[in-house]
Design brief:
Blueprint lengths: L1 H17 L14 H16 L6 H8 L3 H7 L3 H20 L5 H14 L1 H7 L3 H5 L4 H14 L7 H20 L7 H17 L7
Helix pairs in contact: 2-3, 3-4, 5-7, 5-9, 6-7, 6-10, 6-11, 10-11
Length: 206
């Protein structure tokens, strides 16, 4: 009996030494933590851009710890990739209901002016490193072919010209190079330019 009691005491002592707080319970992942991380990253990016987005800052804003962020996103670029996909989807949802090419151009400009940091992230070149897919461009090509005629390939010249025009005025305004007092006249000129491009769509086949 004495030997048995000693053996049991030794076993209990070993458990206490190995697991000082008792056996560890299996860890349950928080299904909402990734959403919180991305929402925190989105707010930080919107507020301060690239300089505001660090893994530690994201963890703090998400109400979690840095290791939890690293378990889901290995690098800051992984977080940015996820944000790009989210912003691409937002832009898609904004242009999808449009009923004309000029309306699509107008909505893209509105998105850029309303969410300048998000627009800059989409156009930063990160998307090009992620994938060859361009859902918004592809949607615009398909719609323009349906509205104007021809194939999506026939409308690439028109859409590339419009894209360059809208992107140019968007970045000029976002950067402050185009001042607020001059923006209404510049926007009117862009709208007129869009009309001219639409009238000459057939000449823009490339």
């Amino acid at each position: 009996m004495y030997t048995l009691l000693c053996s049991r005491c030794q076993q209990n002592l070993n458990i206490v030494l190995i697991f000082p707080w008792g056996p560890r319970m299996p860890r349950h992942s928080d299904p909402e933590v990734e959403g919180r991380i991305l929402n925190a990253a989105r707010k930080l990016w919107h507020k301060g851009g690239e300089t505001a987005l660090s893994m530690r800052a994201v963890a703090k804003a998400a109400g979690t710890n840095t290791p939890a962020v690293y378990r889901r996103f290995r690098t800051r670029e992984d977080i940015l990739r996820a944000l790009v996909r989210r912003y691409q989807q937002q832009l898609f949802e904004q242009i999808e209901p449009c009923t004309s090419v000029p309306e699509i151009a107008e909505q893209i400009l509105e998105f850029a002016l309303r969410q300048p940091r998000e627009y800059q992230l989409i156009m930063s070149g990160l998307l090009a490193r992620m994938t060859d897919e361009r859902p918004n461009v592809e949607l615009t090509l398909r719609r323009s072919a349906a509205w104007i005629g021809g194939s999506p390939r026939d409308r690439e010249g028109l859409i590339f010209a419009l894209w360059s025009l809208i992107h140019g005025i968007a970045l000029l305004r976002i950067s402050g190079t185009l001042r607020a007092k001059n923006f209404p006249r510049a926007r009117a000129a862009v709208r007129k330019s869009v009309e001219i491009l639409m009238e000459n769509a057939e000449k823009l086949r490339v």
